[in-house]
Amino acid sequence: MALNFTQLSYHLIMAEKLTSRAEDYSKWYNELVVMADLAQHSDVKGCMVIKPYGYAIWEKMKDALDVMFKETGHQNAYFPLFIPKSYLSKEAAHVEGFAKECAVVTHYRLKTENGQVVVDPDAKLEEELIVRPTSETIIWNTYKGWIQSYRDLPILINQWANVVRWEMRTRLFLRTAEFLWQEGHTAHSTAKEAIEETERMLDVYEDFAQNFMAMPVIKGRKSESERFAGAVDTLCIEALMQDGKALQAGTSHFLGQNFAKAFDVKFASKEGVNDYVWATSWGVSTRLMGALIMTHSDDKGLRLPPKLAPIHVVIVPIYKGQEQMELIRERITPLMKELKDLGITAKFDADDTKRSGWKFAEYELKGVPVRLAVGPKDLENNTVEVARRDNGSKETLGMEGLAAAIKLILDEIQTNLFQEALERRQTLTTPVDSYEEFKKLLDEKGGFFFAHWDGTSETEEKVKAETKATIRCIPFDSPEEDGKCMVSGKPSKRRVLFARAY
User: Fold this and answer.
1) Is the distance from CB of 197 to CB of 280 less than 8 angstroms?
2) Contact assessment for residue 103 and residue 164, using Cβ atoms and an 8 Å cutoff
3) Residue pLDDT tens, the chain, 502 long
4) d(CA 357, CA 378)
5) Where do the DSSP E strands lie in 59-216?
6) How far apart are CA 125 and CA 104, in angstroms?
7) Does a structural domain hold residue 198?
8) Is 320 part of any domain?
9) How many other C-beta atoms can be found within 10 angstroms of the C-beta atom of residue 194?
10) End of a domain among 270, 296, 322?
11) Which residues form the domain of 177?
12) What values do phi and psi take at 118, rounded to 5?
């Protein structure tokens, strides 16, 4: 027990020294991920270890999304981790987009030599295998054997998996060489069906981001240079973090017939005509964990939306002696059952190696939405102290009807976190007409900028090279408006969304 006590003391001492967001936002983020016990760097360079508390949050995300996918008719499947190199070369834009990020397997055996483990030169693969950076190629090679006629369509498949995109400059959750994600891959008989699927799944991502993550997003279309490699069109949701940088929170791609042509996937139509299949792909990843942290957390630690919190309510007994603690437990047990019946996860922390103040700090750091404190006077008065993590408020409530009251509080916290993030985004969103104004405000406060763009890749590259800002998307709800490109002065019909991004 002494070791646990020492470890906890260390974490709580460190929590008091959590770098503030104003002082160094990047350092604050890195410290918080580690101190809240979400993840840590691995000995494998570029990779991370997701710890149980962090993985519990990811599981909540995964479970919610999985239900949403299945409600829209999708099924889960699994495809190989390894992809023959020749598959990637079949779709030119695709291989060009991922070539620099691929990890390559060249041999299949090791041996010992002079007491050292070495690669067996006699075990070289006839064809190198690529560790999955994304699965379009292996899946479309498989679909070729599944699809013969229109009766085999649509195919609506989702895969939960890990992928590898070689990164050496990493940040936990936001950018690592290996990460977890889901990738949907669907096949359709018409372009119309595929486009509808692309739009439908973007709506699912918007729903999840706003109603589960409490994170407002802007839906739009990527510019040609920002499209997914091999896609005809890429749709996305963009979120704004507290430091004024954007984060791409999800993408949905209309792949046209590109991959069907690359892998010769045809179907016989109702009219008996052979044609290539139409395709989509779409995905979100553990990058959403970083988005969740940076959207809501404060200088005291995490603030978790109740819908994604592994623990909704923590109950901290304040007592002297085992007898008092057991009396508190006895009083609280019926409440815990009521909470469970309402779908609320509650933890009674009876760990006697930690003082109540330490427990308060620990659960504040971990972002538990509601904390109840119960002491001897509360037993006499049949009350509890209720503390909210979102706004830090405290109030004393009676035990009668407490479970229902807590459910209402959790609903309020979910709504409040979304509203806070929405108001912050509105404050950090600025329409600009001048390139000089854009550069000035970008450095001063950051955020989203709505500006006219002439539609050329030359202007887009100039902005990126000079400011490190990119076109995040062409928003769907951006109205037609006559204007002039802020850079070139050429005519423009619509404002697009610029920002620096993660």
Assistant:
1) yes
2) yes
3) 333 444 444 454 444 589 999 999 999 999 999 999 999 999 999 999 999 999 999 999 999 999 999 999 999 999 999 999 999 999 888 988 899 999 999 999 999 999 999 999 999 999 999 999 999 999 999 999 999 999 999 999 999 999 999 987 889 999 999 999 999 999 999 999 999 999 999 999 999 999 999 999 999 999 999 999 999 999 999 999 999 999 999 999 999 999 999 999 999 999 999 999 999 999 999 999 999 999 999 999 999 999 999 999 999 999 998 999 999 999 999 999 999 999 999 999 999 888 999 999 999 999 999 999 999 999 999 999 999 999 999 999 999 999 999 999 999 999 999 999 999 999 999 999 999 999 999 999 999 999 999 999 999 999 999 999 999 999 999 999 999 999 999 999 999 999 999 9
4) 17
5) 75-76, 82-84, 103-107, 110-113, 116-119, 124-131, 155-164, 178-188
6) 11
7) yes
8) yes
9) 24
10) 296
11) 48-296
12) -130, 165
Residues 343 and 455 in one domain: no
Q: CA distances (Å), 20 to each of 15, 27, 115, in order?
A: 11, 8, 50
- Same domain for 134 and 55: yes
- Asked, for residue 301, whether it belongs to a domain, the answer is no
Amino acid (1-letter code) at residue 136: E
**102 with 237, same domain?**
yes
